Amino acid sequence: MPRPVARKRERVRDYLLELVETRPQGTAIPSERTLCTLLSVSRPTLRSAVDELVSSGLLVREHGRGMFVARGKVTQELLGEQVPLAVPKAEGDWSSRVLELVRIPAGARIGRKLELSPRAEITYVARLRLVDGMPIALEQLHIPVAVAPDLSTVDFERPGLHAALRKRGVVVHEAVQSIEPTVTDETESELLGVPLLTPALLFDRRTTDADGRAVEYARSIYRGDRYRIVSRLSLA
User: Fold this and answer.
1) Do 56 and 201 contact (CB within 8 A), yes or no?
2) What radius of gyration do the chain's Cα atoms show?
């Protein structure tokens, strides 16, 4: 079984994303040396997370000056807010393999996504998505324990998380999802069976129920060589 997603690197990445998401564009962030001391991590571990955010266009390196929060990306919604959206089933036989399932504090960034206190407990799950037995995506899911306190490994395999939530009386109503280009890091490449820095798609999704309560925050990396998205647009 592949080794679990490295929690130390994920902690560094979350800290950097917190800086990016809470500081104005063009703001300098602390130096690598300062961040290594602050987070108690090695330079290679920090640099790996920084390189990912630079490749994703969230951070900018300027020679001799340091690192800065990048300018915001242009966003276009393909569907208006009032248009109902049904998600069709993707091709192939989909399955999931749970790599890690733990209860942890939400922390500042995930807590903000889920509208929770940083100390609130969440269920963190890393799982590998497969199509016809071949790895296609690595997903990291965050679900408030208060929403579903008894989730287990089987709930994240067939038939899937949303079906498991429905059994517990939680009906998902809406999801806001963004998709951006990225490249795979060392851990993602190993789990997906692709070379380092392979082009990929980064999905960032927040799901709410009928009452507007956040019930899930997900970050997923899909292989760019095996996955594509087709949008059907009404131009009337």
Assistant:
1) no
2) 18
Strand partners, 139: 127, 220
**CA separation for the pair 31, 68 (Å, rounded):** 10
Local confidence pLDDT in tens for the 236 residues of the chain: 344 445 677 788 889 999 998 999 899 999 999 999 999 988 988 988 898 888 778 899 888 889 999 887 655 555 555 544 445 556 788 889 999 999 999 999 999 999 999 999 999 999 999 988 999 999 999 999 999 999 999 999 876 788 889 899 998 999 999 998 888 988 899 999 999 888 999 999 999 998 999 999 999 999 988 888 877 777 76
User: 108 with 115: CB under 8 angstroms?
Assistant: no
What is the H or E stretch that residue 105 is in?
strand 94-105
Alpha-carbon gap, residue 57 to 75, rounded angstroms? 14
Which token pair is 56? 């994703």
Residue 102 burial (10 A CB sphere; 0-12, 13-18, 19+):
exposed
